[in-house]
Amino acid sequence: MDIKKKYLIFVVEDNKMYNQLITAHLSKNGYANLKSFTSGIECIEAVQNNVIPDIIIQDYFMNEMNGLEVLQKVKKIVPNVEFIFLTANEDIEVAVSTMKWGAYDYVIKDNVALDKVVNKIQKIIRVFELERKNKQIQFLVRMVLILLFVVAVSSILIFALDIFHIM
User: Fold this and answer.
1) Tens digit of pLDDT for each residue in 130-144?
2) Do the beta carbons of residue 119 and residue 93 sit within 8 Å?
3) Domains of the chain by range and CATH?
4) pLDDT digits 0-9 by tens, 42-71
5) Average pLDDT of the residues in 145-166
């Protein structure tokens, strides 16, 4: 399976045209597992219904609630989801606040913002893949250690039985 299709990405943007622009740009870059929402409430409802994203790209200013509120609610349900804010809000305090609450990055909307977002997604996916491989390696190491323990115990038992001429 193509790695870009493996991970579910939510796009949360209340401006329908910009939402479509983001989604089209991601699709053009090979990301096919996308879900688009025009409100934070829709995003939260999807997560509550067990549609679990790996990455959420979202605006900060939205109609019903701001992006930080969405982040806080989603992170309570799915702590490992990564958030990339894509917003026109240049307030440094807002950016710092989102990062404190667990956002991966905060990208200001400009003429290269969508390329920046694609770059951030690639970095997040690399980390996800490294974590997955690390878990596989840890599992294999545990299995080898168990096997070595079984071999050692078996050898000791065979040696003990041989010493006492039981076999």
Assistant:
1) 998 999 999 999 999
2) no
3) 3-131 (3.40.50.2300)
4) 999 999 999 999 999 999 999 889 999 999
5) 86
